[in-house]
Amino acid sequence: MRFGKVTTTSADDLSVAPSDHRALTATFPDREVHVLPGATEPATRSFAMTLPLTDGAKGETLRVHVQGYAYIQGANAALTLKLKGHGTVRGFPSGFSDGYVEVLVAPATPATAYQLSGVLKAHPAPGTDAQADLNVVSVDVSIS
Questions:
Q1: How far apart are the C-alpha atoms of 30 and 18, rounded to whole Å?
Q2: Taking the CB of the first residue and of the last residue of the chain, which one, N or C, has fewer CB atoms within 10 A?
Q3: Which class for 108: exposed (0-12), middle (13-18), buried (19 or more C-beta within 10 A)?
Q4: What is the pLDDT along the chain (144 residues), one digit of tens a residue?
Q5: Where are the alpha helices (H) located in the chain, listed in sequence order?
Q6: Domain extents for the chain?
Q7: Is 0.70 topped by the overall pTM?
Q8: CA 137 → CA 2, 40, 56, 131, 134, distances in Å?
């Protein structure tokens, strides 16, 4: 099983491993949300990738690693990820300041196109001098 032609929404760099086409990395220089001091409205940003799998053996696994950074003060933020019936929501409370890696694992079905979608959202807390920066820097996907 290998990746077919992978497409993304506004990926700056997409590379599929030339040796076996079973791993790829997409980097996103602009997938981020910001809440500045004084903001009252939430900030939202989304991204998507289509990951077609070619014919191959059953019993393999698709692994997705989403990496980024979050700095949250006086706000709450979340990253929501969905991949063919599997999903996760990663919350970032006020005071969080670190890198993160979120992982999704799904059975890899031959001759199937998987849609990975993600939404970044930051909510300022009312009456605070909130500040939030949340981004997705890269998505690494492999078939194993």
A1: 26
A2: C
A3: buried
A4: 788 888 777 655 555 454 578 888 888 777 899 998 888 899 999 988 889 988 776 789 999 999 999 999 999 999 999 998 889 999 999 999 999 999 999 998 888 899 999 999 999 988 888 999 999 998 999 988
A5: none
A6: 7-133
A7: yes
A8: 24, 26, 30, 19, 10
